[in-house]
Amino acid sequence: MTVTLDNLARLSRACGDYAKAEFQFAHTLALQEHSFGPMHPLVAETLNDWARLCYYQGKYLRGECFCYRAMAIWEQAIGTDHPRIAQVFHNLTLLSHVLDKSEQAEAFAKRALAIREQTLGSDHPKVAQTLTVVGSLHVKQADFAQAKSVYLRALKLFKQALGQENPRVALVLEHLGLFYLAQKQYHEAEDSYGRALAMREHVLREQHPDIAQSCFHLARIAHEQAQHELSERYYQRALEIQEPELGPAHPALATTLEQYADVLMATGRTSEAMKKTAQAKVVRKHYAQEQARDLATPLEIKCH
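Request: output the structure for the sequence above.
Response:
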């Protein structure tokens, strides 16, 4: 039964219903710990799945905690070179990347990639999954040649394994958009983001947070090219999704509000811009409070 509950939680996460997924993961974890004890492999699986949800929710420190606890359980149960361990390393890479722990993220990515290539083969979609994050690390280091090579390899693997219209393909296209945007190659960036948005609109529900993310990036490109009317439309659409779906303490919501305020300021609407900036500050405050609570909670309590 708990496996079914965990699968339902993962489905809710994939559909972008993060509040429902969090409730389901919490319920699943409570049942598993009661039925099997805190060191059972099923507990580790739920913790690792929940950690990925935390990444999407902006609850990065909580996600790290869940990963480390899952790692401890699985290393004891199945050893250190199992694909499940690689998935934990992959999630830790994502979390470390957004927390600006670059060296740590790079080490985790190398470990995840090595395990996956050794145990699953170099053409497996899970390898492509980690390559996508590796590409982002290269972009952050301005190693654009290496980043492009890694992204194109990931794109090829995903298309071969999952088809042309899979959300994973859209994710790589979005990362390619970031790659082009970092180099001010606006036409290429807009093409990548536009293809990702079209793909997501085709396969995801209308209010999925990933669609908001695509709109946000397209808004940025339009803004940087002084296409303020187009930029505003994309920011408005992103906010229409993010505000109800992500909640009042998500850093992505704050960033969208801040960027939208810049567009409003550039078009002379100072009063509206100040309101958006004030909203963003409230969101940042809520986010900081949430992170502080996670830091202040002892690890052994927070993870149970």
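The chain is about 85% helix and 0% strand.
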